Amino acid sequence: MNRILIIAPNWIGDAVMSQPLLANLKVIYPQCQIDVLASSWVAPIYRSCVEVRQVIEAKLEHKQLQWGLRRQLAKQLEKNQYDTCFVLPNSLKSALIPWLANIPLRIGYRGEMRFGLINIALVNPSKVNRPPMMNHYLALSNALNYSQEINLSESENPHLNISPASKQSVGIKLQVAAINEKSIYVLCPGAEYGVTKRWPTEYFANLTQQLISHEPDAHVILLGSKGDHALGESITAQVQNTSQIHNWCGNTSLDEAMALIGMSKALISNDSGLMHIGAALTVPQVAIFGSSDPHHTPPLSEKAKVIWLNLPCSPCHQRECPLGHLKCLKDILPETVLSTIRTLH
Question: Which spans in the chain are helix H?
């Protein structure tokens, strides 16, 4: 296997979870060249993977067929003469490009009516029995080589590298804002999934106030997407000394957000893509779980601490609390998170 194409997943956390697959392919096929076709949303993750030769960034939209664009990309990719493609999403449309590009081996899980588009298909476990996401992707590397079964328990956790350009860009931002890079706490109040993954903004504000009170030199930076900016504004409005809190949600690129997380004293986040980035950068972190299951999507790092109440009603995996109380998040108090931060090394 010489030339491998990876069709990337659509979510940041899933993209991080796929890095061990790339590392394992390099172990099994040391001479292989790995390229990744990724949306602009997750492309920075793969630019941070040392195993990747080239990231082919495409403006692929979530839940959009974009037939013309996919045909155009397939024609471009066919010239690269890939012999194998790993299709990580389960959707029909994600399998179209490698099929149109005439890549001989197209590997993935059985998914959305894509018989023939995927010609080496693994049985897709049910959501109830699905293993942790990292292992789910990693198992694909055995599809062609069952003589080298991998030991999932010994597999390396995801690992990312921050580019010097991102560090330089962030350094300038911090200098302009008069922030000492050694005194940063990063808080990520958002979660694309919805409110059942979001710790209340008033709790984030309370935690910020306590951090600043305990450490007069501390600066709290709020990170997230443009959609999280309003959450950041709500948190900032509830903090007394606003000179030490900075709402940068939507004001940094993902590359810059990664660099900021990498230099932080600690990361405090919901179950989100930025949580997984913090783990892959081995940053001390506290991960707050509500409706989701930390056994399926944990932050894979020895420096991570998970707070999950494991209530009888959780994990419900619902976007809105079916019982209307959201106790799985509201009963996690700021004092509990602060004391957990104090235990990080």
Answer: 12-17, 19-28, 43-47, 67-78, 96-100, 133-138, 164-176, 201-214, 229-237, 254-263, 273-280, 327-330, 334-342
